[in-house]
Records
---
Amino acid sequence: MSSAPHAPAPGDSLAARLRHEAGINLNHCYQCGKCAAGCPVAEDMDNTSCQTLRLLQMERPELDRRVLESEAIWLCLGCETCSTRCPQEVEVAKVMDYVREASLALDLAHPRSRDILAFHRAFLDSIRATGRLFEIGLVANYKLRSRHLLKDVNLAPKMYVRGKLPLLPHFIKGRSGMKRIFQLTLGRKR
Amino acid sequence: MSRIGVFTCHCGENIGATVDCAKVAERTRNVPGVVHSVDYKYMCSDPGQSMIKEAIKEHGLTGVVVAACSPRMHEPTFRNAVEEAGLNPYLCEMANLREHCSWVHEKNDATTDKAADLIRVMVEKVKHNTPLHPIRVPVTKRALVLGGGIAGIQAALDIANAGHKVVLVEKSPSIGGHMSQLSETFPTLDCSQCILTPRMVEAARHPNITLMTYAELEKLEGFIGNFKATIRRKARQVDEKLCTGCGLCITKCPNKKIPDEFNEGLGKRSAIYVPFPQAVPNKPVIDKTNCTFYKSGKCKVCEKMCPTGAIRFDQQDELVTLDVGAIVLATGFKVMRTDKFPEYGYGKYADVIDGLQFERLASASGPTLGVMKRPSDGKEPETVVFVACSGSRDRAKGVPYCSKICCMYTAKHAMLYKHKMHHGKAYVFYMDIRSGGKDYDEFVRRAIEEDDVKYIRGRVSRIYEEDGQLIVKGADTLMGGEPVEIKADMVVLATAVQAQDGSEELAQKLHVSYDPYHFFAESHPKLKPVETNTAGIYLAGACQAPRDIPETVAQASGAAAKVAALFSRDELTREPVVAVVNRLPAPTFSYCVGCFLCQSACPYQAIEAEEIRGRDGTLIKTLAKVNAGLCQGCGTCVSTCRTKAIDIQGFSNEQIFAELMTL
């Protein structure tokens, strides 16, 4: 009768690391394209989500690098439509997250990732400090990080009039709990 | 004088809505010879049939025309009714007012006219009808199964278990076929020999089965229920009765360098050999083309060694004639060889092998005892590329069809390889994955997901050798056709499944049709998948089309069921619509002049010669005679006959002309 299926030898490829660290088996993807078909930003991507998965599946260093250097992984909104719709239950959005981290760690991130990262970090700073979004803090933080100091400034008065830009932050209860979450997840990396 | 009754049916609205049936019945009454004409809503209903029966008795009818639907639908119904009323059933005919008139025309006067004409034509025919009787032919309750692979074994066992005698003929020295060569089988990965050999032994021991290995069909005559088959039993040069299968001759044979067919050329065998250890029967055969004695006239070591004196160098082929009632064709397939692929090295690279060779490499009983070693240098291959669709779906190679089994066995091969060599890399180039079947797709997904076999969608364009490695060049169409190059240690081509050598010749011997690729043709692709166009000959397995084991076994059982159904009767009856050569009183005897043009024209070999002799035994005339058991009533002989001596019963020239002349 059949011999038992075996685990592949751990390699350096992103696919192997994904399998061991995140428990995602990219071999499950059969390239139907449903993830890319439902992706709201697929049209602007250099590699759509299913192309990214295909590149990773081959476990070749040159193809892994192509993924790490791509712009697409930064355009991904993390809306998880792909993960929700995947017939093979591949968590595509998680793969994107993982690949983004790997890209940053290896310093291979696409130049256009800079603004996206700046926003991402400013957003997280706000959450960490107040437990929720503090708009003016976020704007200031983002502008400092991205150095787009005057961009969209003329929108500010209108938003202020409509009460979208409160001057003082609101704090949530139990901010210490939020801090612990940050410590446990991102703390060690940043 | 004819007394014809005509019964016009409305078929509900089917005829009645378009044709004025009452008017048709009225007009038909005036046709000469018609003594009774009525119409009714449903003639096929019980009251309708009773109307016919009563009219026959009341009016003393000599013929009946039912104007209704197609005779395919209800001719048996009405003929039965007529027979119950005491009239010969072949004096009842149908005029097809539905398919030939109401369904294809608008409602108007011309349609009603046409309906009346169709009836008039049939009335003229019935006037010339003669009483006919169904033909009865006896059935010989013994089946012949050609081919001893899994298809033949299964069919033979099923027929034998139904209580009928079977002769199982196999051309090679042992039964077992390709299945005995396989290592493990998809989708369960159970060992092929473990499940096959018990069946082989069962077939050999079954009291109803006579095994004839190393034998081939020489000639076939006769027809369903009454075939006469001549089998050539090739000389083994070994007396099967005396041989005990001890194998001493094999160990002592000095010539052990012959490529082994069972191991697909990957191993060696001696000149006197048994194909494989589990062979049935386990009796050796001398390979005369390679035996030292037959080449140089000296040796006979086996004869000296044999403890029972079973070696017979003077044994000759033997012809055996058998009476059989049915035949199951189960002659199997062959695979295309690697030398048919110029782009993959014309078969000159030892490490580019075909699927069957890989089966032997992976088999525990194979030349490497199941250890992965490549043929050229015995090295363990670190990277193996499997190429599906090698030659299949390739019009340029003459095989436009899908070989069906390759997707599955390629997944199995890659899996077996990964199970034996965990650190090895397996790549599969494929075009589509066709894994329809119970648990089949799951099996392929398992190879990909759990065993980490890399599937690349694309055809391999070239394989060449460079620095002791095989370079496989393809493209990944899932990455926009990006070129892929893989350095491999071994390449396995899943080559096309083709019809067995000699299939065309065999089909002609049996008068069975075959397709352009020499696979035997079934009678109907959906509804008669195990029958051939020749009555009494059935199909099982890959001789009909590429097929996997489960399908082959199912089809073999299907063919066996057909044979058992045939054998459940002592005699067969069939429609008497056959050709007959007319006979006249002496001295003419017949219009037939014995030219036998009809014999060469007959597609069913139904025409024989009949000698007319005088009282003193002198030959007066040789006439053609139609064998009613074989004749299919096609009428080719009728149109060929120069003296108009042949007619089809029920469709004679006289009847057809009468039909035409009335219009």
Note: The domain at 14-105 of chain A is CATH 1.10.1060.10 (Fumarate Reductase Iron-sulfur Protein; Chain B, domain 2).
---
Amino acid sequence: MNATVLSSTTAPAARPARRCRWCDTLDAWLPKLVVAPTFVCSLVFVYGYILWTAVLSLTPSRLLPNYEFAGLAQYEALFDNERWWQALSNLAVFGGGFIVICLAVGLLLAVLLDQKIRAEGFIRSIYLYPMALSFIVTGTAWKWILNPEFGIEKLMHDWGFANFTFDWLIDPEWSIYTVIVAAVWQSSGFVMALFLAGLRGIDDSIIKAAQVDGASMPTIYRRIIIPSLRPVFFSSFMILAHIAVKSFDLVMALTNGGPGFSSDLPATFMYSFAFTRNQIGLGAASAMMMLMIVVAVIVPFMYSEMRRSRHG
Amino acid sequence: MADMSVAHTAGASKLGRFIIYGLLALVCLYYLMPLFVMLSTSLKSLDEIRAGNLLSLPGEFRTDAWVKAWDSACTGVQCEGLKGFFWNSVSFVVPAVVISTMIGAFNGYALTMYRFRGSDLVFGMLMIGCFIPFQVVLLPMAQTLGALGIANSTVGLVFVHVVYGAAFTTLFFRNYYVTIPDELVKAAKIDGAGFLRIFFSIILPLSVPIIVVSVIWQFTQVWNDFLFGVVFSSGDRQPITVALNNLVNTSTGVKEYNVDMAAAIIAALPTLLVYIVAGKYFVRGLTAGAVKG
């Protein structure tokens, strides 16, 4: 503090000719001026637009925005829409499966990689490269692999399993599970990297002490290491839940929501109603519901985590 | 951790090590399989694809599918391959990455080295922008771009990606700058250096690693984006991800799986190359956002 006070009094004295009177004022304002555009952008393009979408969701807008007040009619229409319920239940199936499998695979791989493995860096980079690919590329690749005619089914036939059938991609009951398969392939390496970073951060002396006490390795993992990875579970969950709710590209590339609308997710529902079926009001209502889902999942989670860290 | 168990029983642990390496190798194969399938399919002829299976190797090295994907494959009504769309993507990705990284650097610097009243609040507000599902801003943004006359243009896509990418880049730079000791900036202030001078002569030279992280992260995000591309552009202005999806779903004539796969690899190549060259920074970017969360 002293230093800054000093600087403001001595510095102008040192070279009075070069520094103008309002330069210091300008300098004091510069940080705020620099942040201001981003701040205003965020106010307008995030908060303002959320409000705008909320307004649209209360209007009867179809092809063009129409700002008559229609009350909650669009939400009523949304909740009467069978396709919306299908999208929601798909989100539950997809989100649940995707998050649980990614966490399990990520943790397992991280624990295996943490056993002083030779060529660890190389193996890690193989597990992680799918993350560099877009969901569109991922979807295109898996669409081909899961192709009921030429894909895995044919491979198994060639290997002698003549009765093997695998047609999830065109089976309305199972199409959403193909999205889980592709999404897990794309994102599980990332979860592995998070867990591995967490494992490396654990204090070795606790583990040594437990070993001295005669605890076996599985017990140490179960009772000490995995519980101490709690923050990693937390951040991984947040990221994966976020990916799940926003999932759009993968479904578009892999199944295009089909067959029928059996693999629709809220994001594809929103896109299709807002931009291809000219139902702006309904699209806006579904977008607001997506926002509420994100808030409903993330806020309680964050809240409990913050309380925990304050007490612990 | 493993060395204690090694001491216990050498034989059992040797088997254990064998199992661990076996598992890790199997998982490697699983992750590599789609890339292998894409590559080998793209080099086969259609007859070979029908006769063989996913894992069968191409008989000879053919590049026809690649040439077609680049030059003449149909993406909807037009049949000019991916080349135009590839350059579309380049034309908005480069400015979007440069601008959003610069904004992130300035913001991060101002928010850490010159904390003012409410700076934490500003940062918190920006961070919420990382968490919203973008569907909730699409309709108003489409209206705005239309009103400004930059719908379906490079400028429009740059604008959208900068607006919604700046929150992430700010997060990167802020988290990096909090680790730089305050004394450095304080000493410079005593010497009479101003906001910009300190930034350019002290902070920026220290920022190379985080600039690399931010550039790679933004490049991957913007190149791989589909949502903004499909909503805010159309026709021959579309980015490569949208064109790839159109190409794969164009249902005229015989389905050419080899061309689809070549096109997918072309679309993936830039980010894949970045990953191979600078994978370390890529991972750091992924975890930088997450660890601070």
Note: Chain A has 14 helices and no strands.
